[in-house]
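Session log. Operator J.P. requested a structure for one protein chain; no other inputs attached. Running the standard single-chain path with token output.
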Amino acid sequence: MARAAPQANQLTDSEDFDVVPTGLAVAAMRDNGYKNAAYALAELIDNAVQAGASVAEIIIKEDDQLVSTRTRRRAREIAVSDNGCGMDANMLRKALQFGNGSRLDDRDGIGRFGMGLPNSSISQARRVDVWTWQDGYKSAVHSYLDLAEIQEGGSRSVPVPEKKALPREYVERSATISTSPSGTLVVWQNLDKCEWKTASAIFRNSEFTIGRVYRRFITDARLRIRMLSFLEGTMSSVNEGDEDVKPNDPMYLTVGTSCPAPWDGVPMFEEHGQPHEFVYTDPQRRKHKVRVRFAIAKKSAREGHNPGDKPYGKHANHNLGVSIMRADRELELQTGWCINSEPRDRWWKVEVDFPPALDEIFGVTNNKQHARALDDYARRDNEDIALREGYKSYHELQDVWGEDKDPRKLLLSIKTTIEANLKAIRDHLRAQTERKRSDSRRPNDPNSAEVIGTNATRHRQSEGYTGSSDGSESSPEPDRISDITAALAEAGLDPLEAEDKARKLVSDGRKFEFTDADIPTAEIFSVRSKGGALLITLNTSHPAYAHLIALLKHDGDTVDVEELRARQRRSFEGLKLLIESWARFEDEVTDPRKKTQVQDIRTDWGRVARDFFEE
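Structure written below.
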């Protein structure tokens, strides 16, 4: 009896169904999280470093293309060559496989994940060609990946490497290919994902990032990274004399970097305190060190008019965040430690340095762009971390993780250290700014809130309103100065500065003085009556300070109109939050008598505020 033919929706034993269809998998891998072409190029430079290269070259071939109705120069190919140890045919095939490679178990170098070459290449281009040699460039073997073949033709394997001559245009322009006994050339073609369209744009945007990622290798002369471009069909380079990538030190502690003058020859920052070291002992009882360094801008770098708007100030702002270093190579700048509304954050720097053996603890991604575990902790407060992990409090979490020797306790220790030091640095920078502002402000400026408030107070005094501070105004002037000096010093001011402020306050006949300090309570501000004056201390540790007060304070670090507008919008939202919090406070008062008292306080404060604003 003849077997019935299978229906259209039935499967036969002979049909082959991959768990993940190759074409679809590779297409999905194209969106693999590389931030831009610079980070994709960094993967190829990683391979060069792992291969022992002393030179890596980024070579871009351009051609003239018709764009709309005009002919424009566009990048046609991007190539990276190096003078490393090269690969044999078998190693080349592995290098072009996703998730394979020769260094998967390497816990010392910057490689290991086996995704760099194919992943980075297809994130920018539809085809990658690789030539590699170990006995002169004329012995090179070649293989490739082509997305068209994979997606349309169903290709599942890396083409068997074959001996093939390198493109002459790259050999003639490279400084090392023809002279190095070994090396590798990677060429990206069909650049459909690269956001930068010209060689100059690629170089301009890549140099800053690549110089930062490999700053230690460049500074120590372990690696020279050279950039050049040429126009297809010509023999001369477009950028005359080529261009070596300068190191970009986000800590600003080294010289000879890309930092603009006058800080290109001397460090713009200085170390803050001593480096902090943490030692983690793994289950095999091997010890691994993590090093955390802090730096703060020199006072001279922050002096003058609008230092943040100068080229070096903008350079520092582009290097905003905590630099995460792994095996002498930067993974990323983590900005979760920064306050969006605080322009002074450009003037501090932090560097966290750890070995590849701690990749799992730090949550290093396979594209080496992110240490997500530490970044996640940076964006959460300690109590939130504890609750998320199922503990009642942060102290309980610390105790349990300490007893269990949980490796995540290492991250908590690093987080705590960074936060404590950043608080001290920010307080120092804020004090510098406040001193600069107080030195430049006219003490009797009729438009200042202190003078307006003093006038309003005198008007209310003439109408018979009295305050508990008024009686001390008749005390001897030396006693008043002494009392105010002691109170300001207690708030955190330098004693000499406190005395100077006290003398000006008394001689000007002002009633009010503002200071900033960390108050260990939930107060938004505190009020003290000393020497006949009202000393108002704004609590820098209260969230309202960062979301309202700091936004409204213009410290001269920036004059960017868009940033000022953004500050204005955010500060208005902060003001509404402040009023909303009072409304909720009043709403939660359930006792009728107390509720009436609270409402009366709101009304009375409104009357006084009306007098001050009318003044």
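Operator note: The first strand starts at residue 55 and ends at 67.
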